[in-house]
Write a structure and sequence with these properties.
The chain has about 400 residues and is α+β, with helices and mostly antiparallel strands. The protein is built from 5 helices and 18 strands. The chain has helices spanning about 1-10, 20-25, 45-55, 305-310, 390-395; strands at about 40, 60-65, 75-80, 95-100, 105-110, 125-135, 160, 170, 180-190, 205-210, 225-230, 230-235, 240-245, 270, 295, 350-355, 360-365, 380-385. It has a 5-stranded mixed β-sheet, covered by helices on one side. Strands 12-18-17-14 form a 4-stranded mixed β-sheet.
């Protein structure tokens, strides 16, 4: 509020109050709003709204007004309770691995989130905003605000301290422009698509790729390519959506093209490894037996071989010979343009498959283009165990 008032002065003639009492004094109307993910317009009664609420997962669904000055009520889907967690511990000013909250092996700082669920079943465009702040212990951060700006009694810029008492001081490297501020404000736009009937009620894990092109030094403050999560333990009742995004114009300002294939391009694939996670070789498609254990819920006609071909080529070939969702002209058997050995002509982004597992199994996998011995490791593991009777019963009750 102080920043707005300082910039605009008295030009704003209304809406200055932040309490109901002050708003009333100002002659305004104090209106309360219900925040929401969406409004279920096809649910028109309180009774039906309550039925819908019982059938949903983490969302809080209520029958209420959208705003307090409107008497009409609707079925409102509110967001799940906001998560507030202690950040993973890292060494001060360290951009490397962290002691993560989930007690897994050391990984880059992260937080695992559930994507919002929309009961309407409509596709939704979402924005993810990522920020991190840096604070100092040189003043009380909970009791200091913008009114202390340029106040040297609170903190001063690069102060000189007369440590010897003789007038010849020592300067501290303390840049007040860096204290108590927000860094790396990033926004990302993505779309959440509706689930098919076969996906309803299932826990679905997003298996994706993080990082960017370049070596360890060139990617700072990001990281090199890796699968995320790189270790995933699930049950036969769970689903995994394998997908990734990339770019053809990613040149790091011409300073950071270490990697394979055409400069400035991202490429990924996923292939079953022929040995344990310490190796470097994949199985050929013909010998990759793991894919006999899976089926695709996004392309139900696809065989295990079709799935393996799509993931190995990042969708350059969508199947062996074609399916309901894969034109024969884009299949391995019929496509005229064969994939380059560095995947240069394969898609940078791939929507992949939502996988369901037929039985307990496991796979070690790697990306053949980016996994580079002694430079970077882009590998991962999935362990699938059979769902217990208790787990099956619990999901059925949801």
């Amino acid at each position: 509020s102080s920043g707005i008032n300082a910039e605009y002065g008295d030009k704003r003639k209304y809406g200055k109050s932040i309490t109901k009492a002050d708003c009333t004094k100002e002659g305004g109307s104090w209106v309360k709003f219900n925040s929401f993910l969406e409004v279920l317009t096809d649910v028109t009664t309180e009774a039906d709204c309550k039925v819908t609420a019982k059938s949903q997962g983490d969302n809080n669904i209520i029958w209420d007004k959208l705003r307090s000055d409107d008497d009409s009520k609707v079925c409102i889907v509110q967001a799940p309770t906001m998560q507030c967690r202690q950040a993973p511990w890292t060494r001060v000013n360290h951009l490397g691995n962290a002691d993560n909250y989930d007690n897994q092996n050391p990984n880059a700082s992260r937080i695992e989130l559930d994507l919002p669920y929309f009961p309407s079943g409509e596709a939704k465009r979402c924005v993810l905003r990522i920020r991190y702040n840096i604070s100092t212990g040189d003043y009380n951060g909970w009791k200091t605000d913008a009114s202390s700006n340029n106040d040297d009694d609170v903190i001063s810029n690069n102060p000189t301290i007369d440590v010897f008492g003789d007038g010849n001081g020592i300067t501290l490297a303390l840049n007040t422009a860096q204290t108590g501020r927000v860094f790396q404000d990033r926004s990302h736009i993505f779309e959440i698509l509706p689930r098919t009937e076969a996906m309803e009620g299932k826990t679905m894990y997003n298996l994706n790729v993080m990082g960017k092109r370049g070596n360890l030094e060139q990617t700072v403050p990001s990281t090199e390519y890796d699968f995320v999560p790189s270790s995933l333990a699930i049950t036969t009742d769970d689903l995994v959506h394998v997908q990734w995004t990339g770019s053809n114009t990613h040149n790091n300002n011409n300073d950071g093209n270490a990697g394979e294939g055409t400069d400035g391009t991202d490429r990924h694939n996923l292939m079953q490894m022929s040995g344990d996670i310490s190796g470097s070789y994949p199985y050929t498609i013909a010998k990759a037996s793991f894919w006999n254990n899976v089926e695709s819920l996004t392309d139900p006609e696809a065989t295990g071989e079709d799935i393996a071909i799509g993931l190995a080529s990042s969708g350059h070939y969508c199947a062996k010979s074609g399916t309901d969702t894969c034109p024969a002209s884009e299949s391995l058997d019929k496509k005229k343009t064969k994939m380059d050995d560095k995947m240069n002509n394969a898609p940078a982004s791939y929507s992949g498959h939502v996988l369901k597992f037929k039985k307990a199994c496991s796979i070690n996998y790697l990306c053949t283009r980016n996994n580079s011995f002694s430079n970077r490791s882009q590998k991962g593991t999935i362990w699938v165990r059979k769902s217990s009777k208790a787990e099956v019963k619990k999901r059925a009750e949801k």
